[in-house]
Amino acid sequence: MSQSKIVEVAAAVLQRPDGSFLLAQRPVDKIWAGYWEFPGGKVEPGETPRDALLRELREELGITVQTAYPWLTHVFTYPHATVRLNFFRVTAWGGEPHPHEGQQFAWQYPGRASVEPVLPANAPILRALELPDLYAISNAAELGVEPFLARLKTRLDAGLRLVQLREKDLSRNELRELALRVATLTHACGAKLLLNGDVALAQEVGAAGVQLTSTQLAELKERPAIDWCAASCHNAEELRRAESLGCDFALLSPVLPTRSHPGAQHLGWAGFAVIVAGTSIPVYALGGLVEDDMRVAWQHGAHGIALLRQAWVS
């Protein structure tokens, strides 16, 4: 097969309400037999990736897809071919998956996949699945430090698992003190904490990562040496830059009008969808949103939503 030809593939992340997802083992009569992968298959001539997804899951698993959201696109070169994997998150289907091709199935949990070996192309997808749907951005400046910490504790207890500490008006010492307190709370419940723009402080307080500003994104030559690295983006060029730098995920804003920038230009959901189409990293929608916007965000290709003031509404 010509190495210049890209094989289009539709792939499904079947997700149950408890967060588990389905992996399938490749049958003995196929290349890479015994490796685990996300269900799916080649896009046939005349098909869209969504059409192929519906057909493949019907043929391969015996299920009828009811709800599928566009998600990530990952290009990977194997010795025999280069594939473009068009991933969808499938959250509702009719029927119970069963092996039409004699393959084994296994339900796995984010961050705790126990089957191996997994196809090499799927490693970044497994990492992306560790990210929750909601990303909360701190607002101690308006709430006050103690009220903010109290609301953070409440949200963490209720299941919040991804937090960005972004407090531009604090001195370095004040920010460090707050970061240590926030890190203590997030560590206690297994949540990820990212610090806005300060890699050194993130490393010092034991945060999981850093949220790069758009200025940092433009200036950096390589990805910071930290576990999780995200980027703040406002257009397609910045999002492509975040991908090339090796960021784990991105924020894209503003989607809707915001209180902090009334009258400013915003992307709208249609504009957001155009920019994120084909992206290889998860993207959170930010700007003028509420938690009830989660489903519409998924429909337009977002991994989830990021909230600032709305994250701390009591």
UniProtKB/TrEMBL annotation:
It is an enzyme of class 3 (hydrolase). Pfam families: NUDIX_4, TMP-TENI. CDD domains: NUDIX_MutT_NudA_like (cd03425), TMP_TenI (cd00564). It catalyses: 8-oxo-GTP + H2O = 8-oxo-GMP + diphosphate + H(+); 8-oxo-dGTP + H2O = 8-oxo-dGMP + diphosphate + H(+). Keywords: DNA damage, DNA repair, DNA replication, Hydrolase, Magnesium, Membrane, Metal-binding, Mutator protein, Transmembrane, Transmembrane helix. Its EC number is 3.6.1.55. InterPro entries: Aldolase_TIM, MutT-like, MutY_C, Nudix_hydrolase, NUDIX_hydrolase-like_dom_sf, NUDIX_hydrolase_CS, NUDIX_hydrolase_dom, ThiamineP_synth_sf. The chain crosses the membrane at residues 267-290. The keyword Signal does not apply. Residues 4-133 form the Nudix hydrolase domain. Its cofactor is Mg(2+). Gene3D superfamilies: Aldolase class I, Nucleoside Triphosphate Pyrophosphohydrolase. GO terms for biological process: DNA repair; DNA replication; thiamine biosynthetic process. It comes from the Bacteria. GO terms for molecular function: 8-oxo-7,8-dihydrodeoxyguanosine triphosphate pyrophosphatase activity; 8-oxo-7,8-dihydroguanosine triphosphate pyrophosphatase activity; 8-oxo-dGDP phosphatase activity; 8-oxo-GDP phosphatase activity; metal ion binding. NCBIfam families: PRK08999.1. Belongs to the Nudix hydrolase family. This is 8-oxo-dGTP diphosphatase. It comes from Sideroxyarcus emersonii. The lineage of its organism: Bacteria, Pseudomonadati, Pseudomonadota, Betaproteobacteria, Nitrosomonadales.
